[in-house]
Amino acid sequence: MHPLKVEATDIPGLLVLRLHVQHNDVGWFKEDWHREKMAVLGLPDFRPVQHNLTHNDRRGITRGFHAEPWDRLITLVSGRAMGAWVDLRAGHTFGKVVTADLDLGTAVFVPRGVANAHQILEDHTTFSYLLNHHWTPEARSQLSAVNLFDPALDITWPIPHQEAELSRTDVRLPPLLNVTPMKPRRILVAGTDTPLGRTLLSALPGADGIGAAAMSPEARVESPVDLSAYDTLINAQGETGSGSTREARGAEPWATSAAHATHLTDLARRHRMRYVHVSADCVFERNAPAHTEDSALSLLDPPSRGLAVAEVVAATAPRHLVVRTGWVVGDDDHTIDELVAAARHGRTLEMNATQHGRLTFASVLAAGILQLLDSGAASGTYNLTGEGPVVTWADIARRIFELCSRSADDVVSAPPSREATGSGGGVLDLTRIRSTGFRPGNSWLQLQDHLPGAGTPRGPRGTSASPQPGMSHATPDSASHQPSRPYRILFVCTANICRSAYADVVARGAGMNAVEFSSAGTHALVGEGMDPPMAVHVGERGDVGAHVARQLTSQLLEEADLVLTMGVNHRRYILDEWPAAGRKAFLLGHVAREMAQLPEHVTLQNLVPHLWKHRSADPADEVADPYRRGPEVAAHCAATIDQYLEAILDGCTKLMNETENR
Question: What local confidence, expressed as pLDDT, does residue 253 receive?
Fold first, then answer.
């Protein structure tokens, strides 16, 4: 038998398989599906769960293009056809077309979001489809489609349009120009009826949430939601600490913890989802200055045993991430709000002063999880908390009191109650998460930015709190742009010779007198001009020769009213180095989306607070780095920036005009 072959195509993930058909005296034999052989040659282990057969009586039947929310392996049982595929996923390959002749010896693996079509070339042709998700009306509603004969696709069908037999539905499908790309799979957070689940969900843009009971083993259905819409399942069924001496964690039986974790792990495995298990406020077997991912959890009390069991079960998922964290606070759990309220209402607090750790803001936890997912981090356990000094909850409360002009002496240290002795608070070593390129940032310095309604923070006895070197405490919420000078927009990328340089030069060339543009790099090639592959796309729209790369500094950030970064890593760099400036730094694509749909109440003075309130962490808002990646990538980068700039410049013009008319 000839060896199986798997061939890549111009559409990422679309694979053509060359099968061997063994003919014999009575007919033929072939292996349509052989998991081990195909996986070795690069076919994803997509674990089919449904097998469909479609028979076509007549030559000329033509169907498509339909992009469905599942992966498919297409083979022929009899006959002959021409297959065609169009990439309808968002990205630079959107609209890419691939065609192939289909016969008994040819199979095609079609990934989710790639539209499939065929034209029957021989009577009595039968297709076989293996699907990795069960067909449901809910899943089918996610379908994207494009017209078979759209000239933009430039497909030469063997049987012309006039002679082909089409369905009424396919005739009415839109041209590529009007097609909305298929939405990528999203994140599902399980456990949003717990403090940790609610907190994490609020910090994950675009994620959906579901309660623990709905996803329990006792539920009547496997899942109350269509799991084909998700590629990541996060188990966040846990508590979060608040430092109160009265808190105590519930004692959930081992069997319940194990059953929940086993059920979710099994769902993730069967639906090929990445599985993230968040383990919060762990208690460890032994004391240590900082606990690594290898540190064993304590088994001394029921809550700790439940955490340990859940981690062991989660690690059985093929694509798992166990994220240990602690002292998670977010907008929805009101932990910080309650401490601020106590300070502002003159109350004295008694806080836990025996356990040590670091605050973890929900936005940082979410960003770290996204970093692990997007970077394809190896399965395993990762510690993820904020950075900065190791403190107690009493220290945190005292810091908040000082920022609210109260005396730190109004926070009283007290040992935890007997019921709360096992409530976690271990210090986690962050070496491994840092090795992935993620920097959580100093949570102690960021605390002032999370106070509800806080303006410029004040120190004790009414004196100003000491600012971080090179950075004032002023934030966009407390210091608006002054209309007497131009509005200042700063573009930021890495070297300041490609993305931010291009955006700066093109934006300057637009001639907006009321807006002043500039750019800088987090690791700038100081003094260099714009990279030629990007410069060629500027054309006559700006003065390329005037650009000189600059290093990002605290002064540049202070002078800017709005900072537009090209990637998440650039914004994270700003948050790490100058936390106070993080509230006016956003991804270029995010700002473009918001500027295209600004509500009437948004003005130039409150633009940045509006952007902060509607901030996003969507990876699609980034602009890919084109440096040394060829002219095609540079062209795509320039086109992406042009698209974003058009929305931003139009939005600025609108806001400027409205300001003048007021």
Answer: 63
Higher pLDDT, 242 or 189: 189
Backbone angles phi, psi at 516, to 5 degrees: -110, 120
Average pLDDT score over residue span 418-431? 66
- HSE-CB at 8 with a 13 A cutoff on CA atoms is 6
Please state the length of the chain. Answer: 662
Look at residues 16, 116, 125 and name the one whose alpha carbon lies nearest to residue 81.
125
- CB count in 10 Å sphere of residue 84: 22
CA 482 to CA 427: how far, in whole Å? 44
Buried b (16+ CB within 10 A) or exposed e, 382-417: bbbbbbbeebbbbbbbbbbbbbbbbeeebbebeebe
Q: Which residues contact 359 (CB under 8 A, 6 or more apart)?
A: 327, 329, 385, 386, 388, 391, 396, 443, 444, 447
Q: What's the Cα-to-Cα distance from 252 to each of 285, 310, 380, rounded to whole Å?
A: 19, 12, 25
Average pLDDT of the chain, as a whole number: 85
Query: For 504-513, how does the pLDDT look when each residue is reduced to its tens digit (9 = 90+)?
Result: 999 999 888 8
* Residue with token string 């002023």: 474
**Which of 202-211, 449-458, 604-613 is predicted least confidently?**
449-458
Q: Which of 456, 451, 518 is nearest to 491 (CA)?
A: 518
The mean per-residue pLDDT over the stretch 565-583 comes to: 84
- At 118, is the secondary structure helix, strand, or coil? strand
Task: Supply the residues annotated as catalytic.
Answer: 66, 129
pLDDT of 89 over the 70 cut: yes
Q: Are strands 515-521 and 487-493 parallel, antiparallel or unpaired?
A: parallel
Segment (H or E) for 50: strand 50-56
pLDDT of residue 293: 96
- 249 in Cβ contact with 264 (< 8 Å): no
Are the CB atoms for 281 and 195 separated by under 8 Å?
no
Spatial neighbors of 495 by CB under 8 A, at least 6 apart, are 521, 523, 524, 525, 528, 549, 627
CB 122 within 8 A of CB 80: yes
Beta-sheet strands, E only, within 111-154: 114-120, 125-131, 144-145
**H-helix or E-strand containing 395?**
helix 393-403
Residue-level pLDDT at 473 = 31
Whether residue 507 contacts residue 489, with contact meaning beta carbons closer than 8 Å, is answered with yes
CB 487 within 8 A of CB 514: yes
DSSP code at position 606: T
- Whether the upstream peptide bond of residue 65 has omega within 30° of 0, thus cis, is yes
How many angstroms separate the CA atoms of 73 and 434, rounded? 39
